[in-house]
Amino acid sequence: MNRRAFLLTIGASALVSPAAQAVTYQSTITVDFDFKEVRYQGGGVSRIYPAVLPKPTALQSMQLDRWPVWGMLSQTDREPAWMPTPNMRRANPRLPKVVRYGEPLHPIGIYRLRVNWQNPTRPSFWQYVRIHGGAKEKDLYQHLSSGCVRMLDADITDMVALLKSAGGETRITFGYGLAVTS
């Protein structure tokens, strides 16, 4: 583990109450902004998936330069409708309020993971941040989204199956320099 990852780990631990530290997670999802990937660990299985990450303007709003942001997986939606955020609709008033799964403008793929964020610096921004499918192969490892993390549909489908198999609580962490643990 490098010095920055160690310090981030120590900093993240300081933000968690002693009661929360006692929770045993069945699985973890780590979104590493240095490597532009999503890592899954749980049920004796580890996987690394390529991802599309937020644009620089969204990254500024995320304020991940201070410490990682973490939360708990709260819901997995299959074939979800997409609702553009208020900022997206202000930027493009022609966007519909809702786009159902399977419609041409639907950008988020077959699964969406919702997160109950525990320590965001800007809760009003983070309430819209999800992990979802819909990524295109040509966009992987780039910063193109408005805040969410996009994965290939096949990859998020694989990860959802692993989450179901592992059961229990899932911790999700977004940050820079997050060390790979074994």
Structure explained in plain terms:
The protein is α/β, with parallel strands linked by helices and 182 residues long. The protein has a single domain, classed as L,D-transpeptidase catalytic domain-like. 26% of the residues lie in helices and 27% in strands. It is built from six helices and ten strands, in the order H-H-E-E-E-E-H-E-H-E-H-E-E-E-H-E. The protein has helices spanning 3-14, 18-21, 56-62, 86-91, 123-126, 153-166; strands at residues 27-32, 37-42, 45-50, 53-54, 69-78, 111-117, 131-132, 143-145, 149-150, 170-175. The strands form two sheets. It has an eight-stranded mixed β-sheet with strand order 3-2-1-10-5-6-7-9, covered by helices on one side. It has a two-stranded parallel ribbon with strand order 4-8. The longest helix is centred in the last third of the chain and has 14 residues, at 153-166. It is globular. It starts with a helix and ends in a 7-residue tail after the last strand. The model is unreliable at 1-22 (pLDDT under 50).
Spell out the key features of this protein:
L,D-transpeptidase catalytic domain-like, 182 residues, 26% helix, two-stranded parallel sheet, alpha/beta
Order of helices and strands: HHEEEEHEHEHEEEHE
Unreliable spans are: 1-22
According to CATH, the fold-level topology is: L,D-transpeptidase catalytic domain-like
CATH evolutionary superfamily? L,D-transpeptidase catalytic domain-like
Continuous helix count = 6
**Major β-sheet strand ordering:** 3-2-1-10-5-6-7-9
* Mean pLDDT across every amino acid position: 82
Largest sheet: 8 strands, mixed
| CATH class membership | Mainly Beta
SS class: alpha/beta
Helix content: 25-40%
Tell me the CATH architecture. Beta Barrel
The number of domains: 1
Round the Cα radius of gyration to an integer and report it.
Answer: 16 Å
